[in-house]
Amino acid sequence: MSVLDTPRIYFRGEITWDPIVTNNYSQLYDIATSKPVLGNGTVADYRELARTTIPGGNWNVHGTHRSTLFETTVTGVDVGNGTDRTDPLVGAGVSFAGKLVDLNPYLSSSSQLFYDDFSCGIQGGSQILGKGAGPMVARRINFARNSGYRVIAGVASVIWQASIPTEQLTCDPHGSPAVTRLRDLIAGDGFAGLTIRMNAYRTVYYNSESDDPAQVQKLAADIAGGGFHPNPARGLVVGVVGPWRHGEPPSVPGDRVLNQVAGSKVATAFARTGDGRVVIDLSNSVQETSFKVDKDDLGPLELVAKQAGGDVQLGTLEYADYNKDAYEATSGIVTLQLTDAQQAAAETADLILRRTNGAVLLREQALTAAADVPNLYLEQGEQATVSLTVRLRGRPPGGPVSVMLAEIGGPLPAVQVTTDDTGRASVPINGGTPGSWIWVLLPWQGQPPTAPAALNPGLFEYLTLRTTPADDDIAALEPTWDNVHANVLRYWEALAPCMDNWLRLGDEQQCAAYARIVKRLTSRDRFDRYGYMPVTRELTRGQRTLLHRWCDTVGGAAHDKAPAAAGRHLDLAADVSPVEAARDVFGRGF
Amino acid sequence: MIRLARQSMETIGDLNIALQKAIQIELSTLPPYLYAMFSIRDDTNEAAITRLQAIVHEEMTHMSLACNILNAIGGHPVIAQEAVVPTYPGPLPFDIGADGNEPFRISLLPFSPQAMAQGTHIEEPEEPLVFRNEFALAAEPTFDTIGQFYGNLDTRLKQLPAGQWSTTPRNQIGDHPFFAGQLFPVTDYDSASRAISHIVSEGEGNTQSPLDFEGDVAHYYRFEEIRRNQVLKKSADAPEGFVWGEPLGVDWSAVHPAIADPGEHDFSGDPTAQAVQDQCDFAFTDMLQEIERAVTGQPGRLGNAVRAMFDLRLAARVAFTTPLIGSDRAAGPSFRFRVRP
């Protein structure tokens, strides 16, 4: 459903990836304490230590976490009659800036993009503008996407998804049938808003098509020479915007799941059947074989419904349907028309994608489960309730279904919950021990499944949890500058040299002058915002308590403590502008 | 509309001079735009800030592209010398805008209709598209708009022999790690022409549309949107295709109470304000010095330039919130070229 329904809007372009990756290393970052490992060293010591790890793989010491679409435009629309490139929205720019944060920085399977705005088109013209309502989430990472390009994670691709509620959307058609149809559709019953789904692939590091040790050495040397030296990677992206129905998971695909089978080179895909067609999302599935992203030619691919009485052929995808040109034109989404008989078969039997020699590439997993909030943050001692949605071939199951939550690599026994007839269930989760955990979601009927020993993010839907420590001892400290710097600010100062551009976290006078802004940006109600501090979401409850007490103490004196002009001040009473918080300085000049 | 005395471009030396002029033109636009933008109070004028940030960002890329072209034909960009840094208030480089009369003078103005009108004047194309409520002026002969200047430059560059171009990228600034998708190396006429097209398109739009090559509103019309406090909207009913639409949400009162042209202010009896000005000037000068290093063979220094830009931003924020002695007004950055002692 969702983006596999019509109308939908296709876009294509590029995106930057600029995370700090110093916290990917356990010797540099302790996920249990949620703090960089400084020991008795200074901020300068830590930064230098991070710099020395560049040759070992730390490719972005000065990262900003910013991810921005660039050279990205609407490539086509489909209002139900096939791809249309005459809609006024086609060619319009697509704007998105998010902060890339791994819930668990040690792993590659829990990435998120915290963002405030997404738009296609410009104000005054055909435009869809949405205000973020929770992070965009990465799932189904495919570590075999590009067989011809393997620098760092350049081999991989991943699906990103977010949904924006109707009340946070502005749709100005200005003559665009696609925008008109979307606007009218989501205003009706049964629709919650719009879903954005992107596929990111062929990520280039060090701005180089190949491993280049000279670039690695140059980065280390540039940083040693002072200044600000982010090293953003950049990748390709295709995407689609479509309707979001009530009941569909906002952040992960809620469609029918066609899982990759062992030995197949085609990664997990998604499908929707109905209205006389089957729509398949192959955006994350077919390999590329070169840096130029030519698609692997697997020959004709047959889609069949696997019935007990014999397979029902639903259609054939020729190479022209999934090659590079087709992929870029419709963001990997392919539509096959169905007869009534074919549709009936497709809706009651598992789907299979296979080669003409019979080799199965993808096989449907009929029961699927997804969490409404697939990446969850808790503070130690907190409890949350996670909602799950189970589907049977993309539809409510019509009866109770069991779901096993199997912890990966953890000590806890699997948890079992049962859905209602609509496929909904709730799971209470406690933030007990600080750290990070993953639970694979395994819906089942009949025989209970065997919990996997390891996470295969391409095959499983899962729930991740990050619990930050309470740090009650830090909360109890006197709110002095020394305590705040030693227990809160120096960690950000050490891990995030990019902060020097905005606020010198080792400068008491400057921090005091901006205390109200700091308090606002670190408030928990801004946790999902683009401009939340710290960007890594590692601030603990105890740290926040101490920091805010200090901010309250010095905030009233801010008028008298301008950073450079001690003694006088006009206007520091003003809090940080949402404009400034939202418009990151790194990508838009100042 | 500002105009440039027509520039001779007959020799490679002439082209070097013309491209240096282009660099200085782009550089000279930044301080007045920044002064207006930095003067806006927090929590206000989101639409105006978004537009001004985009303009400033693009002006920086324009200067970099002009440097790339000059480097590609063997030249040496000069950015960090007192003689090439404009003073404010003052004329644009080379008396641009004189039109044979008094030079057009640029001031550092807090965010205001006057500041935005100054921006439209700088960015005005030869034949601006006229929408309802006409605001365009007629063209004059013998002098060039910035767009015409670049057009002539493009024509002459096209005539250069292939051997004049440094096909191996020479001192080029690409779009990594900054300005993704906005910068590219210049190694031949085609890439130089593309760079010129970007500069002109983003500044002026074109003769048929107020939109630039990326479908965004060009600088001239963005300034006009802010000045009018109206969104420029597409309209199928209007013969020009666009009309001035709903309010943009500009609040002219939401501005720090700052003086204009702080370079003319006497800070000698105000050591606090003088110290703030020093920080602004030093950061601005640091930035120019680092940019010059970056475009003359040390591309890694671009990161130092960006750090200095942020220093300037922080210093400007302090300046706009530090009252002058005996006054309820502040002085923003003067953007003077002053090397740290």
Descriptive notes:
Helix content of chain A is 18%, strand content 34%. By secondary structure, chain A is an alpha+beta fold. Chain A has 4 domains: 1-18 and 64-250; 255-364, Immunoglobulin-like; 367-468, Immunoglobulins (Immunoglobulin-like, Sandwich), CATH 2.60.40; 472-582, no CATH class. In chain A, the strands form 5 sheets. Chain A has an 8-stranded antiparallel β-barrel. Chain A has an 8-stranded antiparallel beta sheet with strand order 18-17-20-21-14-15-16-19. In chain A, 54% of the residues are buried. In chain A, helix 1 (43-52) runs parallel beside helix 8. Chain A is globular, with a radius of gyration of 25 Å. Chain B is mainly alpha-helical and 341 residues long. Chain B folds into 2 domains: 4-255, Up-down Bundle (Ferritin); 257-341. Chain B has helices at residues 12-38, 46-72, 113-123, 146-158, 189-204, 219-228, 271-295, 302-319; strands at residues 4-5, 90-91, 105-106, 143-144, 230-234, 242-247. Chain B has a two-stranded antiparallel ribbon. Chain B has a two-stranded antiparallel sheet with strand order 2-3. In chain B, strands 5-6 form a two-stranded antiparallel ribbon. Chain B is globular. Chain B starts with a strand and ends in a 22-residue tail after the last helix. The chains are: A alpha+beta (590), B mainly alpha (341).
List keywords for this structure.
heterodimer; A: 590 residues; alpha+beta; Immunoglobulin-like; 4 domains; 8-stranded antiparallel β-barrel; 8-stranded antiparallel β-sheet; 12 helices; 18% helix; globular; disordered C terminus; B: 341 residues; mainly alpha; Ferritin; 2 domains; two-stranded antiparallel ribbon; 6 strands; 43% helix
Give the count of helical stretches of chain A. 12
Structural class of chain B: mainly alpha
The name of the CATH topology of the largest domain in chain B is Ferritin
What is the overall pLDDT average of chain B?
Answer: 89
From the alpha carbons, calculate the radius of gyration of chain B and give it in angstroms.
Answer: 20 Å
Quaternary: heterodimer
Characterize the main sheet of chain A: 8 strands, antiparallel, barrel
Question: What order do the strands of the largest sheet of chain B run in, or round the barrel if closed?
Answer: 1-4
**Rg result of chain A:** 25 Å
Mean of residue pLDDT values of chain A: 92
Strand portion of chain A: 25-35%
Helix content of chain B: 40-55%
Helical/strand content category of chain A? alpha+beta
Q: Low-confidence parts of chain B lasting 5 or more residues at pLDDT below 50?
A: 132-141
What distance separates the N and C termini of chain B?
Answer: 39 Å
Considering the protein shown, what is the CATH homologous superfamily of the largest domain in chain B? Ferritin, core subunit, four-helix bundle
What strand line-up does the widest sheet of chain A have?
A: 1-4-6-7-9-10-12-13
